[in-house]
Amino acid sequence: MPVTLPSDVLARYRRFSRFNSPYPAHDDGRAIDLYPEGSTGTSPVSGVVRETRTVGCPDRSYAVDEDHLIVVDLDDHWCRRAGTEPGTVARLLHVDPEISAGERVAVGDSLGTTVRSGFFRRWVDDHVHLGFRGPGVDVLRASGSLPVEAGVDVEPVGWDGTGTVVERGPAHVVLDAPTHPDPGRSFAAIASDDGIPLDGGLIHYAGGGAFEALSGDAAVRLLGALVGRGAGRGLTWEPVDVLANGDRVVGLSLFAARDGGYGAKVVCPNREFAVGERVSVAIEPSDDPIRLGVG
């Protein structure tokens, strides 16, 4: 039985994604990453904290070497709203907890400050990772979570592959296109050529997804290229390369957003683009596509 996050919960975050991750916890959309407005790890659930635990994470120069797991026994009322059975447990990561076992948290409460986790690649923004386990299931294992659904519509946004760099990070750039159709009021995502809003790391992570159900073995195309196939919400990426101004880059970071700063996010640690530079993205078949693991 999937857990459906209500629309008023998702509205507290500027962005979310279920598939934009290389980690098994996100396989088949069994976890969701929630991107807050600032550095506060806002709680998406209500219940009583069962435990908090500090865990080690990959050693990266730009990140902390310890992360944190927060386990919450969910209130029956929250479970009913989310369509899951009483006794369901939430697992939250990437927040330095300011709460402890036995404390009650409500939706919108601060769990603590988000951390720049070693589980993140350099281009990944700070976020709250959320997964769910059914009653009696081991909450400490990395796998075994319930499927997660988003209780909001995500508006598809067409894109011709072009834009101007408006933000540059150490491993990515953000373009001024496509533009959000209704910033602050609805969620939107870059859409396939057939109007399907897309989710995931194209194609640097093994699988991606869609924000609406796909029928059969659906073929998904973007910028004229076949990029994936799938049924339901999940996609298997085809072997393709993403090019920016003719150079191969790592890929595109795809997610649902409601903030006005939305635009195509090009992952390009191997290529520098200047703010104000015009960029044209293309996708073509590849015999050696970039695939990133969890290391």
Q: What does the model show?
A:
With 295 residues, the chain is mainly β. It folds into two domains: 3-150, Glucose Permease (Domain IIA); 154-285, no CATH class. 4% of the residues lie in helices and 45% in strands. The chain has two helices and 25 strands. It has helices at 7-10, 76-82; strands at residues 3-5, 15-17, 32-35, 40-42, 47-56, 66-74, 89-93, 95-97, 104-105, 110-114, 128-133, 148-150, 154-157, 162-168, 172-175, 187-190, 198-202, 207-222, 225-237, 240-244, 247-249, 251-254, 256-257, 265-267, 278-285. Strand 14 and strand 15 form a beta hairpin. The longest helix is centred in the first third of the chain and has 7 residues, at 76-82. The protein is globular and about 55 Å long. The mean pLDDT is 94.
Give a summary of the structure in a few sentences.
The chain is mainly beta and 295 residues long. Helix content is 4%, strand content 45%.
What labels would you give this structure?
295 residues, mainly beta, Glucose Permease (Domain IIA), 2 domains, ten-stranded antiparallel beta sheet, eight-stranded antiparallel beta sheet, 2 helices, 25 strands, 4% helix, 45% strand, globular
